Amino acid sequence: MTLQIKKLATSPSRSGRKLQRYNQGFRLVVGCIPYRIKQSNKIEGSLIEDLEVLLISSQKSSSMMFPKGGWELDEEIELAALRETLEEAGVIGSLEHKLGEWIFKSKRQELFHEASMYPLLVTEELDVWPEKDVRQRVWMTVDEARQVCARSWMKEALDAFVCQRGQRADEPRHHVDYSCAQVIMENHY
């Protein structure tokens, strides 16, 4: 699948809605929270403070968000997540278990969307990708991402990612946060 995704790097982004999937009137979108683990001298597992996530700018403004876009009829959901992330952010990696699903209203249209989000452990950053000329990409800490992400539902997805990793960024390691269980349960229906 990686070779299939890499071929997309030199192709233009998909556009249009004729292959778009819908569920009971909701446009289905899919995206990723691309992340990497900062190099450290720690031998044990990584903490949230060791993670950086990748946000991209909107095409039409400087708003920051995670890569996402339409899930189309001719592809599996995982391939759509990888494709959208490559097209918008220019990264490739290892897709992990789905974080959940969120319903949100489009900012430009009176249309509701159902979004599925996945963590993506980034293994390669491309120098050339389809939307390089219309987007900026920025690596930042989880806390920085929570502050600058323009979409509230994406902040919820980020919280689900942090919970899936096992610790909230602003809490000591020994603290059990029962809201993490709530975040995960709310987004798996």
TrEMBL record:
EC number annotated for this UniProt entry: 3.6.1.52
Lineage: superkingdom: Eukaryota
Alphabetized InterPro entries for the sequence: DDP-like_NUDIX, NUDIX_hydrolase-like_dom_sf, NUDIX_hydrolase_CS, NUDIX_hydrolase_dom
Domain Nudix hydrolase: 25-162
Entry-linked PROSITE patterns: NUDIX, NUDIX_BOX
Enzyme class at the top of the EC tree: hydrolase
GO molecular function, one term: metal ion binding
Keyword annotations of the record: Hydrolase, Magnesium, Manganese, Metal-binding
Names of required cofactors: Mg(2+); Mn(2+)
Family recorded in the similarity comment: Belongs to the Nudix hydrolase family.
PANTHER family, alphabetized: DIPHOSPHOINOSITOL POLYPHOSPHATE PHOSPHOHYDROLASE (PTHR12629), NUDIX HYDROLASE 18, MITOCHONDRIAL-LIKE (PTHR12629:SF67)
Protein name: Diphosphoinositol-polyphosphate diphosphatase
